[in-house]
């Protein structure tokens, strides 16, 4: 069983990512959680080497040559454990507990805050980092989930993207329609719907992810009583077909 991170280890990972060397812009743990889920619902199993660079920098720039190996090893170990725990939770429980941004109830409005973020419903604002990380992963692998034509994929993606600021009339219309069809009255409602959207995507892609292609023979199968293809004149079972 995969051992998930403790609250103390989540805090440790967040601190380590905040001190990523150089001028790199690493994710925080809430955005990382969404990103890992976006990686996990891809139709292919992606190796860590393909998706880790975007965690450590928004532009996937390499680490400085003098980056501390101990720092990197600890970061990778913690991320791998969270990745494995999420994978197990999706497969076995069809549920996981996402990391949600903690917002102060009495926080004063920030005049420099993005108006699009300000316009978001209160239940969506704590989920912005997770949704942003998830979308980052989806866009990072355009030949993955986005290449599939399953009818329910876009609907599930819309349920996650509704927690991000809308930038186009189409996005605003989609969010408005969801607000009517699937209203979210509380943060618990929003978290449950977001998690189930990820679970739905995981279910859609699981058959692709674990699909095993059948081997096609280039030549007909040789029967045990057929002449051996080597030309010895013996039956296959008495020649190269011996076991």
UniProtKB/TrEMBL annotation:
Could you tell me the superkingdom of the organism this chain comes from? Bacteria
Leader sequence range is none
Q: Cross-referenced Pfam families, in alphabetical order? A: SEC-C (PF02810), UPF0149 (PF03695)
Provenance organism: Inhella crocodyli
Which SUPFAM superfamilies does this chain map to? Sec-C motif, YgfB-like
Q: What is this protein called?
A: YecA family protein
Check the record and name the PANTHER family matching this protein. ADENYLATE CYCLASE-ASSOCIATED CAP C-TERMINAL DOMAIN-CONTAINING PROTEIN, UPF0225 PROTEIN SCO1677
């Amino acid at each position: 069983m995969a051992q998930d991170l403790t609250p103390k280890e989540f805090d440790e990972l967040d601190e380590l990512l905040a001190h990523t060397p150089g001028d790199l812009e690493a994710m925080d743990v809430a955005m990382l959680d969404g990103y890992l889920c976006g990686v996990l619902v891809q139709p292919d199993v992606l190796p860590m080497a393909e998706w880790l660079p975007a965690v450590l920098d928004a532009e996937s720039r390499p680490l400085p040559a003098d980056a501390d190996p101990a720092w990197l090893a600890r970061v990778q170990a913690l991320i791998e454990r969270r990745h494995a725990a999420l994978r197990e939770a999706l497969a076995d429980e069809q549920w996981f507990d996402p990391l949600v941004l903690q917002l102060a109830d009495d926080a004063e409005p920030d005049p420099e805050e993005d108006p699009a973020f300000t316009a978001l419903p209160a239940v969506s604002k704590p989920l912005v980092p997770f949704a942003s990380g998830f979308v980052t992963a989806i866009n990072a692998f355009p030949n993955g989930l986005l290449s599939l034509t399953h009818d329910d994929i876009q609907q599930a993606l819309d349920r996650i993207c509704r927690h991000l600021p809308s930038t186009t009339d189409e996005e605003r219309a989609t969010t408005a329609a969801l607000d009517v069809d699937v209203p979210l009255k509380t943060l618990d409602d929003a978290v449950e719907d977001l998690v189930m959207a990820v679970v739905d995507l995981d279910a859609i892609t699981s058959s692709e992810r674990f699909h095993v292609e059948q081997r096609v023979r280039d030549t007909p199968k040789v029967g045990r009583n057929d002449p051996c293809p080597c030309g010895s004149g013996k039956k296959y079972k008495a020649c190269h077909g011996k076991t």
